[in-house]
Amino acid sequence: MSSIKTERQVIFLFKLLVHIKKYKKECVLGPLFKLLEALLELFVPLVIASIIDDGIANGDKGYVVGMVLLLIGLGVVGLAFSITAQYFAAKAAVGFSTGVKHELFKHIESLSYSEIDNIGTSTLITRMTSDMNQIQSGVNLTLRLLLRSPFVVFGAMIMAFTVNVQAALVFVAAIPVLSVVVFGIMLWCIPLYKKVQQRLDKVLGITRENLTGVRVIRAFCKEKEEIEEFTRSNEELTAGQKFVGRISALMNPLTYIIINLAVIWLIQTGAVQVNDGILSQGDVVALYNYMSQILVELIKLANLIISLTKCVACGNRVQALFEIKTSQKISDDTSIVGDPDLAVEFRGVALKYKNAGDNSLTGMDFSVKRGETIGIIGGTGSGKTSLVNMIPRFYDATEGEVLIGGRNVNSFPLDELRKKIGIVPQRAVLFKGTIRENMKWGKNDATDEEIMAAAKTAQAADVIDDKGGLDYEIEQGGRNLSGGQRQRFTIARALVKNPEILILDDSASALDFATDAALRKAIREMDSDPTVFIVSQRTSSIQHADKIIVLDDGKIAGIGKHEELLETCQVYNEIYSSQFKKEAV
Amino acid sequence: MAKKASVGKTAAQKGTLKKVLKYVGRHGFLMALSVILAAASVALTLYAPILIGDAIDLIMGRNNVDFEGIANILIKTAIVVGITAVMQWLMNTINNRITYHVVRDIRNEAFRKIEILPLKYLDAHPSGEIVNRVIADADQFAEGLLMGFTQLFTGVVTILGTLVFLFSISWQIALVVVVVTPLSLFIAKFIAVRTYRMFHLQSETRGQQTAFIDEMIGNQKVVQAFSHEDEALEKFEEINNRLADCSLKAIFFSSLTNPSTRFVNSVVYAGVALSGALICIATAGSAAPFTIGQLSCCLSYSNQYTKPFNEISGVITELQNSLACASRIFELIEEEPQVSEPENAVTLSNVKGRVELNDVSFSYTPDRKLIEGLDLSVNPGQRIAIVGPTGCGKTTIINLLMRFYDVNGGSVSVEGNDIREITRNSLRQSYGMVLQETWLKSGTIRENIIMGKPDATDEEIIAASKASHAHSFIMRLPQGYDTVITEDGGSLSQGQKQLLCIARVMLCLPPMPILDEATSSIDTRTEIKIQEAFARMMRGRTSFIVAHRLSTIREADVILVMKDGHIIEQGNHEELLKKNGFYAKLYNSQFAV
Hints:
The complex is a heterodimer. Chain A has 23 helices and twelve strands. Chain A is an alpha/beta fold. Chain A folds into two domains: 2-18 and 99-323, ABC transporter type 1, transmembrane domain (ABC transporter transmembrane region fold, Up-down Bundle), CATH 1.20.1560.10; 371-382 and 418-584, P-loop containing nucleotide triphosphate hydrolases (Rossmann fold). In chain A, the strands form three sheets. Chain A has a six-stranded mixed sheet. A four-stranded antiparallel sheet of chain A has the order 2-1-4-5, with no helix packed on it. Helices cover 64% and strands 11% of the residues of chain B. Chain B has helices spanning 7-25, 28-58, 67-116, 119-124, 127-169, 171-180, 182-218, 220-225, 229-254, 257-283, 292-333, 394-401, 424-430, 445-449, 458-467, 471-476, 494-508, 524-538, 573-579, 582-591, and strands at residues 59-61, 64-65, 355-362, 371-378, 383-387, 409-414, 417-418, 431-434, 443-444, 484-485, 512-516, 543-546, 558-563, 566-571. Chain B has a six-stranded mixed sheet, with helices on both faces. In chain B, strands 4-3-6-7 form a four-stranded antiparallel sheet, with no helix packed on it. Residues 1-7 of chain B have low confidence and may be disordered.
């Protein structure tokens, strides 16, 4: 989050607008037709003036009817123009947001774990959904109205010049004053509005916290304090809202005063001009009408500006995401620097997470031969998951290098690297869709036989039979499966890939001991003979491994076989006895 | 959007409206002031064109201008305009104030309700949904209410006022306006009914897209691990295009309303111009001629009159929407709260730890029986362990002890008092709970640890953290005890979060600790060390332990073996093993490798 707060405001929005290029035609045509419509409206006061000066003055009913028909004609053409404009505006806005969403989705997918950890999933989702909706309607409104309003305002001024230069000067004076007021209030409100949103976020945070933590809050009898805190934050929010409200409420009265002062000045000037015979009475009415048109447009503009302000704020949030680039570069140096027969080698590797105070891993030095099984064990927060996450390059080493087949992991294209590696994460995640669709994540063109073979190894075959075959629909998040079933499926999914390296990150925790043992046996017997990493807290899961790495507080406390470690490594010995010795007594 | 007016819905809307008015009613004086200001400012707004019209009439032609008259009128206009502007601002400010205060009150009330709702309700409703009511619905409601205040009322007054003025100037022209304008309402409605279906389709597709984004971005790490990015993008593209298609239709067709009603307005305008001009010509030279100024005034009125008409149809939609939002918040506010405490409720003090469960029966849903006829008697200082397979009701017993849920039958008593006769605060303060699902508040590490004892000294905090083996990792955080953590604990591992929760309880040394799978995410080595600290904490205190690792509960005085909501075996470790029943089976299966 913190990195996003350092955003550079308005420039961002313009950067985002690059994505509208594809809709150049619509962006030009939309406002253009809108302007044409506005242009027609500007003729209306002229027509009225001629009705007064020529029609009524001469008592010419025919002329009056003709002019009124002209008015209706202008209305019809205006309607056609306006509908065309709406169509182009809608098309551009929708096309724009569709395009940005596509790019954004692609961009988010390209971010590495470390950026995702930093940003947080929930804000990624809100930016892609609600922020984008705000932007879409903002762009649509802008294309429809934003150009129209200034056009009407300046158009009215130009038309006033065609009527009378002296009177038009009133417009020349009034418009800058109006602009200052409108934009001044707008600029004043944008940061205030943002502050209000932040305060709203706070209120939202407290509410959510009180729902997720309800048991703890009640157990500690914190209800009263929480209510006080909520009331305080809510009061701050309300105060902010009222303050912005008071300022934006200035917009209409101020413009109303300015316009009417201009009208008064206009009448005064007009009176003199008419007295001198330079101007007719109808001309004065026309000028007055132009001034009224400006007022109407400004009121519309005021409403637009509120949603535009929101749109700018949301646009900044979205662009801020685009500004975050993945920190992982693919190195050009594809040379083999290590022993090509080693499946995996860590050379003096250290890992420090972004914004963390300290290294999570230091001095990781070990090598793994092809086909070996490696057990990784250690206490809470000792760095087990961090260690295996560096093999598929989910995180980059901050020091040293990780080699696969003698080649640095950062020289592989990511998809090539990850094709070699099958990982079963701690949290068993499945996706909405059939079992078959989920299994095909490992390999797009996997046959049913391949899937069943993998499932058999993962001890999931009987679950599939129970559920009635591969066409069984899994609900979002795998809600309709038990924890153990989910875990077996995620293991099968990784096996379908037929990976060179298989990583099981504490992924058998929900399996009973017998199934866990059967699983390990089946993996050992796989034809492809993958290199296997097993992360576990149970010594029983790893004691038969070819090599066991014992981690303690981010450092290697010992490497070796079970029996060796029992003798040489105190940490391992303690872990083992905590699980077995005591039971034996 | 189209009004799907079923009778039930309108009745419900009326009910909601009444409740809203109750809140608004608290600001009765401001409300009245706002109404008066609205009426007055509208009247003055309408009066200004008349003045201008009069002024124009004094500009007859060359050398025929009444400058003095004009100056008088213009000064009058300036005063009227000034007063109008001030009144408008005051009115807007007052409306803002009423709206935001109403929403603030509703939010506060909703939050207060959340704090006293039974867990039964909170457990059954996804937290996102409730948050949505307190935040998004309240916001939407505020927006609608404000819009209603500022536009609906002034709109109606403007329409009525304009009509009165128009009739006073020329009833013929007024009639033209009255007859033609409703056309725009018909058109607006016609379009709205037809676009409703498209909006519906749009929000449905949008929902699908959000669900997909939620799934893929939420599990981004798995997506990347399987190089599934391209497939995900492809699927996203498909939904995105479908959404673009129906969004375009929905937006375009709904945006037809404005130009169409504007067209009706220009017809009205033309009608006024025609009838006005003809009347002018007809009455020219008569005793009471229809003047140019009056015509200009009528034209300006016809603009002012049609504008609120367009707005009102929008405002009504917005108001309906906002009432729907309000009703969702009211639903929450009116939800049945937990049973209130009796007036003479006992305040527990000096708790020894005698707990009694008598013939307790309980179930979350009436059709699925869970606990029946449960009897348990705990003496002070005893350690009670509860074991059994998942879903057998272990955590449920804790829910009953803490009175998160009330028993359906029988009773739970502490120190001889039925817990329904004890104040909730003193009951819960007697326990100290560590749950399997860790929960940390957003705030500093220190704030999280002192939750149970806000006046703890630094020494006490550090001692508690050391006892729970959290001290060393806390010291490695960037700002130690003052490191701010986000709501779900951010970058802390599950095990570290659990250590913090343990430190929290260690600090306040409660009379009766409850440990519900308290060490499930902690490695066995640290666990053993923490067990020692727990053992010290539990010495002489009644304690309840739920665990699935049997090694942690062997030393308990009483082990309750639960299955399907029943206690099927009861006794200490040795007794139960000797019995060779369910417990023995469970115990042996865990160590058969």
